[in-house]
């Protein structure tokens, strides 16, 4: 399949937010966790709009015919749609943006929460294997590196079988902004920290915020995991951090 064809299918189920005006706007792609889209991500999309970006809250479940229950039973357990497979959505939507007059496809910012962070990291780590792994014959890892101006990773999954710690991103990538939670009961903080340390060792710029007393999904007021504790103060701080990262992306 061609990337733009898959991107168009993903967009059918995703939501696009735009600033006033005709653009072209830089674009923030927002990737949900393993359970699917939740309303709090639209607040982050609004943060992107306020920073001068268009934003796409990407739905990775419905284009594949996956329900919320499917996600909980198979995606969240790692049985299907692992990060390297889901990376197809990034390449697809980026290709689709090339045909949209309101979008500047050369100025992209990626933001992922939990499984979405894993997806972003694997997209870079795949390197020249990306076409074979994602099933997109024209997926171009060089274009990904050239066009992505920054990446926000919020409590990203980085344990096995995620690729970054073991192999890095193979020749660079954008500046990374990361938010880790010290009481994260889902992905922990040690595995993401090791992945970020690998990127630093490979010469990438990495900025990390560590909230020692935060749980996984601390910014989601509708988190379905009973162990999660919503922290509106940290939600506000993370939105501010995202805004700062987006503005740095425009400067780069």
UniProtKB/TrEMBL annotation:
Source organism (scientific name): Caulobacter henricii
All residue ranges annotated as the Dienelactone hydrolase domain in the record: 15-244
Native organism taxonomy: Bacteria, Pseudomonadati, Pseudomonadota, Alphaproteobacteria, Caulobacterales
Keyword Hydrolase: yes
SUPFAM superfamilies to which the protein is assigned, alphabetical: alpha/beta-Hydrolases
Superkingdom: Bacteria
Name under which the protein is recorded: Dienelactone hydrolase
KW Disulfide bond (keyword) present: no
Gene3D superfamilies in the cross-refs: alpha/beta hydrolase (3.40.50.1820)
Gene Ontology molecular-function annotations: carboxylic ester hydrolase activity
């Amino acid at each position: 399949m061609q990337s733009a064809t898959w991107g168009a299918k993903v967009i059918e189920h995703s939501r696009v937010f735009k600033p006033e005006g005709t653009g072209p706007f830089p674009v923030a792609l927002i990737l949900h966790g393993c359970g699917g889209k939740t309303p709090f991500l639209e607040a982050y999309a609004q943060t992107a709009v306020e920073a001068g970006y268009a934003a796409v809250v990407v739905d990775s479940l419905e284009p594949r015919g996956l329900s919320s229950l499917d996600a909980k039973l198979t995606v969240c357990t790692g049985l299907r749609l692992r990060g390297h497979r889901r990376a197809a959505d990034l390449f697809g939507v980026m290709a689709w943006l090339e045909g949209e007059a309101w979008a500047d496809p050369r100025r992209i910012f990626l933001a992922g929460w939990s499984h979405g962070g894993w997806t972003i990291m694997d997209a870079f780590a795949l390197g020249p294997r990306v076409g074979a792994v994602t099933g997109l014959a024209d997926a171009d890892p060089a274009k990904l590196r050239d066009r992505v101006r920054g990446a926000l990773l919020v409590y990203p999954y980085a344990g096995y079988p995620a690729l970054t710690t073991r192999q890095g991103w193979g020749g660079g990538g954008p500046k990374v902004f990361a938010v880790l939670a010290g009481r994260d009961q889902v992905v922990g903080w040690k595995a993401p920290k090791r992945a970020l340390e690998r990127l630093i060792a490979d010469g990438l710029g990495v900025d990390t915020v560590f909230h020692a007393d935060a749980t996984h999904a601390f910014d989601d007021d509708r988190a379905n995991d009973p162990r999660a504790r919503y922290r509106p103060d940290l939600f506000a701080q993370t939105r501010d951090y995202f805004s700062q990262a987006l503005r740095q992306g425009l400067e780069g």
